[in-house]
Amino acid sequence: xxxxxxxxxxxxxxxxxxxxxxxxxxxxxxxxxxxxxxxxxxxxxxxxxxxxxxxxxxxxxxxxxxxxxxxxxxxxxxxxxxxxxx
Length: 86
What we know:
This is Acyl-CoA carboxylase subunit epsilon. The protein contains three helices and no strands. It has about 90 residues and is mainly α.
């Protein structure tokens, strides 16, 4: 009976075994709680980055071509009387 259970688990594990690991321990022997903490940290950081990229931001018009095509605004003491200046 235990053979059939292990066979069923072996059939389902190749799919998860083919996935790229999230973390790779290069040096040391971390506890499972430490690995779980790091995994949760990286998962939350990835989620925050995805949410920030989806947020709408104010459009930055720095270097806009329309700004270069306008007439230069110079000082004019009679500018208020001359409405075409604006």
